[in-house]
Amino acid sequence: MKFATKLSLGCITLLSCALCAAGLILTGKSFSGSLETTRAAMQAQQAKEKYTLERCIFTAAETNTLFSTNTMVENYTLATAAQQYAEQTADANSGLALWVNGAYTLYSNLPTALPRAVQMQAVSNGADHWQLAHCAGHWYLLLSQPLDIPGVQADMLCSYDVTSVFATRNAQLRAWLAASTALLALGGAAAVLFSRLVTRPLTTLQSASEKIAAGQYTERTQVQTNDEIGVLSRSFDAMAAAVETKIGEMDETLQSQKDFIAAFTHEVKTPMTAMLGYADLMRAAPDDADLQRESANYIYHETRRLEELSRRLLALMGLDAADRLTPEPVSDRSLLNQVVRSLPQGSTPVPRIIACDCAVQVDRALWVDMLRNLTINAQRACKGIAGAAITLRCQQQGSTAVFTVADTGCGIPAADLPRVTEAFYMVDKSRNRADGGSGIGLALCTRIAQAHGTQLQIDSTEGVGTTVTVSVPILSPDDLPAADADGKEQP
Is 142 within 8 Å of 151 (Cβ atoms)? Predict the structure, then answer.
């Protein structure tokens, strides 16, 4: 069952219960009030009738000299007086009965349909007690009063037809039923419209979620309301946007992984194929010393390159965990000097160092490795260019130390610049491979920077040069070790 249907049925049910309860309460109060008013009026009337009946009995007794000696005459006198009184006050809606000793009647004009047991019960209850009786389609109010007659236990039992009170109640119930039916019809229609209005945004949310589940990540609800459903819709749209972004990132990551695997396969397969070829030549011509030497040199060179590739890959994977860092306070000059000392012997051009003598907190080994890789890339970019130069610089900008590796080499084409930090991506593949490059250096530098909570910024113009910057917070000089504070280089 749909939520809208449940909501409509719930509203209709509540409305029905409310109308029924209201009808019963109002009708019950009206009926109780009418019945109480009628009872009070009948009791007052019975009190008057009791007094009048007693006067009639005493009057009849005064004319009967045998009143005090003959019991049969006494009963006759009582019955005659009761009959005469009843005939004088005859009323179709009331009746009178004269009971003696609570056991038998001397006179009665009560409706014949009234059971004797009901009459006796009413008499035995005594004065100030009222009783309702239903018989032959009529409702009767029974009231009993004892008569004050010397030597005789007599009770006057009166019945009053109160069918009209019950008829009024039934008419009120029928009227309320008709009104409730009309109100229920209007309320039901309003409930259906209300439920549809309320659930329409939920239906939109359901449709959007189904489309997103089917792969339509651009789907949005666009529900513009100021209630909780509107807030839910905006939260859903924000979630959908986040999902779309994450899916896009996952697609990019997947594509990057595919490219990585393809590049890695190519990077490893090419030298391995050549190494196998040279190994076959060595086996085929064991007596050719020149061929043996050439093959051994190639195998050695490619083995060293594969070793360096594996080292860098392990370093790249090892940076996935931030807890692998061991930051320590160190001076910028000590770092820059260590970078220059770590460069391969004979590599040119030799970088020029410009330090500002500030203190930073980094993982010394990783930071030096990052700057070293950037410097080696700069040296490769300067190869074959007369007058090309490299500058290693650290300058203070406010509370930040900005490390810069700048060269005046060949530069990076604008089309290649967005991808140079991808693993195995090389601008000039043949040149980089000839220089021992693998395309991992900048990717590793990027990961090292990210592990320190910062980012590489690469600015390059083809034919002019490249500048790479990375920034970290500055520490107080008091935090430096003694060797660094004195400006000495660390081993």
Answer: no
Query: Among 287, 315, 343, which residue terminates a domain?
Result: 315
- Specify the CATH number for the domain of residue 242: 1.10.287
Domain membership of residue 43 (yes or no) is: yes
Query: CA 292 to CA 309: how far, in whole Å?
Result: 25
Helix (H, G, I), strand (E, B) or coil at 162: coil
pTM surpassing 0.70?
A: no
pLDDT at 360: 95
Provide the domain count of the chain: 3
- Rounded distance between C-alpha atoms, residue 372 and residue 375, angstroms: 5
- Is residue 443 a contact partner of residue 315, using CB atoms and an 8 Å limit? no
Give the pLDDT confidence of 206-233 residue by residue, as tens digits. Answer: 788 888 888 887 888 877 777 777 788 8
Q: Residue 56 and residue 65: Cα distance in Å, rounded?
A: 16
Among 381, 316, 312, 323, residue whose Cα is nearest residue 349:
381
In a domain, 185, yes or no: no
- My answer on whether 292 and 359 are in the same domain is no
The predicted-structure confidence for 84-123, as pLDDT tens digits, reads as follows: 888 877 777 888 888 888 788 888 888 888 888 888 888 8
Helix 441-451 to helix 364-382 angle (10° resolution) is: 150
Here the tokens at position 343 are: 């460069």
Domain boundary residue, one of 315, 341, 356: 315
Same domain flag for 22 and 126: yes
Residue 135: in which H helix or E strand, if any?
Answer: strand 130-135
How long is the chain? 491
Q: pLDDT, tens digit, for every residue of 398-436?
A: 999 999 999 999 999 998 888 888 766 766 544 444 454
Task: Tell me the residue type at 208.
Answer: A
The answer to the question of residue 203 being in a domain is: no
In this structure, the answer to whether residues 349 and 310 fall within a common structural domain is: no
> Are residues 139 and 9 part of one domain?
yes
Residue carrying structure tokens 């039923």: 177
Structural domain including 462 reads 324-485
The token pair at 29 is 């109060």
Nearest CA to 235 among 214, 205, 265? 205
- Strand, coil or helix: what is 469? strand
Q: Which residues contact 184 (CB under 8 A, 6 or more apart)?
A: 12, 15, 16, 19
The total of other beta-carbon atoms located within 10 Å of residue 55's CB is: 12
Assign 331 to helix, strand or coil: strand
- CA-to-CA separations, 228 to 79, 201, 205, 341, in angstroms, rounded: 83, 11, 13, 65
- Between the alpha carbon of residue 253 and those of residues 214, 247, 331, the distances in Å are 21, 10, 37
Is there a domain that residue 213 lies in?
no
> 470 with 381, same domain?
yes
